[in-house]
Design goal:
Blueprint (H helix, E strand, L loop, with lengths): L1 H21 L14 H11 L1 H6 L6 E3 L11 E4 L11 H24 L4 E2 L5 E4 L6 E3 L5 E5 L7 H11 L2 H14 L4 H23 L4 H13 L20 H14 L8 H26 L10 E6 L20 E7 L2 E19 L5 E9 L5 H8 L3 E2 L5 E15 L2 H12 L1
Helix pairs in contact: 1-2, 1-7, 1-10, 2-7, 2-10, 4-6, 5-7, 6-7, 7-9, 8-9
Length: 424
């Protein structure tokens, strides 16, 4: 999870930087080119695409390290627990901060939804006594809201109706929540701000396309007057600009320049940025999925892998060169047919191998990791592929099994005879 978050944050910075460079104008005029809202919205979506691809189920697997298979059927094997991270889990902290930021945005949206509205002669236009600029309310109260005293037939109403027509308020709320979820990542924030500027440019164009030059200047003067901060600090969705800093002034200069008649120019370079970013996002996301998604460990607790059928290990015909100096017989008491009897067992070899388990429980792809003698390896590989494990809901990759080869007898002398036959 944390890898996906880091990937999204880093990639969003790359997307924002490439978009900023590609949309710069060659000239210094205020009527330069600017991408459409659709381009900026897709750039926001592409900035989180690698994280989405990271979670795509490209053959998701479960990695279980250091498993030792015992001699009993069925065999229960548990994964070593990595320890509980407790309250210092970085993902939980990240999610908690993002949740608080989203709550703040939703409270602002809720205050706007509760504004006292007074209907006018036009069905989609309302007035309010609250100290807010003209704005558009999102669902469920989709309407244009004007402060008391505004003329309902002004160009500013057409501006807000353009927002209403394109569902800009709903999209802005969604993007602000995404921005909160990403903890106001600079890349995401820049792209969202540019999208908000582009929807304002689109609404300005809809409001002024039939105005005379004099009326355009009056509209620009009214717009300039509305840029002052509101006394009650109510956040509008969408607001004319994101911040009252240098970026805000550049955006306002661009809006005013277009309103008074500057030619907007072509926005093709915005689509070029989109195409380049799309290819880059796909490459980064698919690479991340290939490197970490396919082989990444599922974030689960202790896992019990139960084999419901196992072929008993067969001793090889001979193991010439097997070292027997360190082999020791161990006395065990076992119960056979209700009677407790004494047996002597000796572990003469052990093979450690990795194997994979498909989603249906079948074992495949055995790979020898280590063995006490090469004579045991062929039998270990032949035996492990006969095992059947209960389905885990996902493929199990690189399960490490340790297979002991054991001889047994009623007396130590019987063990010695078996050992001599094995080493000849």
């Amino acid at each position: 999870m944390i890898e996906a978050l880091i990937l999204i944050h880093l990639w969003s910075l790359v997307v924002a930087a490439s978009a900023r460079v590609s949309q710069r104008d060659r000239g210094k005029g205020v009527g330069g080119r600017f991408p459409t809202p659709r381009v900026w919205f897709l750039l926001v979506a592409l900035s989180v695409l690698p994280g989405v691809l990271y979670f795509m189920p490209f053959g998701e697997v479960l990695r279980i390290p250091d498993i030792e298979i015992l001699d009993f059927i069925p065999t229960h094997v548990s994964e070593r627990s990595a320890g509980d991270p407790g309250f210092f889990n970085p993902v939980l902290i990240y999610g908690g901060v993002g949740f608080l930021l989203m709550i703040r945005t939703l409270r602002s949206w809720s205050r706007l939804q509760r504004l006292p509205l007074v209907p006018t002669t036009e069905s989609d236009v309302f007035t309010t006594t609250a100290d807010v600029p003209p704005l558009t309310l999102s669902w469920p109260r989709r309407a244009v809201v004007l402060p008391s005293g505004f003329q309902t037939g002004s160009a500013l109403v057409e501006h807000e109706r353009a927002h209403l027509h394109h569902h800009d308020a709903e999209l802005t709320l969604a993007l602000l929540l995404l921005q909160d979820l990403m903890l106001h990542n600079p890349g995401i924030r820049y792209l969202v701000e540019q999208w908000r500027l582009s929807i304002e440019l689109r609404a300005d164009r809809a409001a002024t396309e039939r105005l005379t030059a004099s009326e355009r200047k009056d509209y620009a003067a009214l717009l300039l007057d509305l840029q002052r901060p509101r006394r009650n600090g109510v956040q509008t969705l969408p607001c004319p600009s994101a911040h009252h800093g240098s970026r805000h002034h550049r955006a306002l200069k661009m809006r005013l320049g277009r309103i008074i008649g500057a030619e907007p120019g072509s926005g093709r370079q915005g689509w070029a940025a989109l195409a380049v970013t799309f290819m880059g996002a796909c490459a980064v996301g698919i690479t991340a999925s290939a490197n970490t998604g396919i082989d990444k460990a599922m974030e689960v607790g202790p896992v019990i892998l139960e084999y419901v059928r196992k072929t008993p290990l067969q001793m090889p015909a001979n193991c010439v060169g097997l070292k027997t100096d360190d082999l020791k017989a161990v006395e065990r008491h076992v119960t056979v047919d209700g009677r407790r009897i004494q047996r002597y067992v000796m572990k003469v070899g052990v093979v450690t191998l990795y194997h994979d388990v498909r989603t249906d429980g079948s074992v495949h792809n055995p790979r020898i990791a280590a063995s006490s003698h090469p004579c045991f390896e062929a039998e270990a590989e032949a035996a492990v592929v006969q095992w059947i494990a209960e389905s885990q809901g996902a493929a199990v990759k690189d399960a490490a099994a340790k297979l002991p080869f054991v001889i047994s007898g009623a007396t130590p002398d019987e063990l010695r005879l078996q050992l001599d036959a094995l080493t000849q």
